[in-house]
């Protein structure tokens, strides 16, 4: 620690060279905040210099269709933690999912990456070592307790309130604990914003499994106690045990699940919402709760619940002895009734989602004979062709949500309305890492320009007449 601080003091003006070279000196340091403390000044300088030299460079054009069409392909956000390639899928700080599975530290005897390692990677850009990941597990375990008003609130929600509504409301109520909001109200210098956003993000990530497990126990396990956090266990192991699951394979699944659902660059509904709300300098609890309300939509995170509903509908209609012909007919009926096939399609991806593929590999390894898995595998064979035949679906391939529920229910988690809560716990890792960087880079209040249809028509007309005049000249 002392050496680290000395180095950071000596380097008062950022040196030349890539950030990864500079910070290698700190690569064995286990205090994440110290690592960031040293990294952030260099990145701030790098971005400042880049903007000064190239701030006027055009990076795209905006069409009328983009404005009406959900801003697809419009490059208008900066997100450091991950990039989504339409063909290849997600890369977390440059690493694909198989690379993360190979390179990130694992639990003793485990094969899947620890989500703590993924968080370290997302927020610093570096692959952590085991000591760094262990220190995060310990730190999150020490921050996991809930204030009593949140426990009381959770215990008093009616059983018919959807788990995602409970989750979002509890996260909003947790903002009584916001160190950022408190410091801001006392007068906080803007250069310090990120430090308090970091503290809140660490607290929130630590508390999410406790909130989520309390919801689960209240709704599906007669309100039984979640038990105590074990500071020697990793984040997922504690979560699994609070949920009441003892099978080590379920814990491994949870580690994989919480790793792969964490981040999908900046434009998806949950990430964009957190970023947008955070730009108003709302605290991380309020920002993240907003993101969870977006994740709760059926075209986004709730699709994992919808997939299970759809699979159950299939087995109710066709029984376990479904045939390929029967499935084709049912899928066509679903489309004819104006509904989507949940778990298929994506706004950016144009190939099978690698998050689907790694879950399929997990299933092939651990539950190859599971009936529901076989159904999911069969749907993979037939849904894309049917979606392509509609002539309008841009991506007929399965996304992350097509697979997750089947794995969870294999280990006994059959409560499908709960699945999006797990997605939400994982999503915190990516969006809160991004929120820290948003404040570190001083990104301002987000405020894109909107136009009315009349205004757009006038603009198009005037642009056309300018173009015609230029042609005539
Ligand atoms: N089933 C039926 N129709 C689909 C479809 C699907 N799985 N995917 C796309 N389409 C339809 C769209 O509804 C749209 O129809 P209209 O022109 O009649 O409105 C048309 O095909 C074109 O859509 P697109 O450009 O291919 O897809 P979008 O970028 O507009 O939407 C998504 C992307 C994910 C909302 C869409 O594919 C969908 O609704 N999928 C099912 C829900 C789902 O699985 N969501 C989870 C996504 C992953 C996540 O965020 O968790």
Summarize this entry quickly.
The chain is mostly helical and 473 residues long. The chain has helices at residues 2-10, 19-23, 32-54, 64-68, 97-103, 115-124, 130-142, 148-155, 163-173, 179-185, 193-220, 235-243, 248-260, 269-279, 284-295, 303-318, 324-336, 354-366, 371-389, 401-410, 419-440, 453-472, and strands at residues 82-85, 89-92.
The rough form would be described as globular
Approximately how much helix is present in the residues? 55-70%
Main beta sheet: strand number and arrangement?
2 strands, antiparallel
CATH architecture of the largest domain: Orthogonal Bundle
Ligands in the structure?
Answer: carboxymethyldethia coenzyme *A
Highest CATH level, the class of the largest domain: Mainly Alpha
What is the residue-averaged pLDDT? 94
- Widest β-sheet, arrangement of strands: 1-2
Rg to the nearest angstrom?
24 Å
The assigned structural class equals mainly alpha
* SSE run: HHHHEEHHHHHHHHHHHHHHHHHH
Instruction: Quote the distance from N terminus to C terminus.
Output: 69 Å
Number of domains: 3
Strand content: under 5%
Low-confidence stretches: 1-18
What is the count of helical runs?
Answer: 22
Describe the structure in your own words.
- It contains 22 helices and two strands.
- It has helices spanning 2-10, 19-23, 32-54, 64-68, 97-103, 115-124, 130-142, 148-155, 163-173, 179-185, 193-220, 235-243, 248-260, 269-279, 284-295, 303-318, 324-336, 354-366, 371-389, 401-410, 419-440, 453-472, and strands spanning 82-85, 89-92.
- A hairpin with a 3-residue loop joins strand 1 and strand 2.
- Helix 11 runs parallel beside helix 12 (235-243) and helix 13 runs antiparallel to helix 18 (354-366).
- The protein binds carboxymethyldethia coenzyme *A.
- The active site is at 300, 346, 401.
- Homodimer.
- Its main location: mitochondrion.
- GO terms for molecular function: citrate synthase activity.
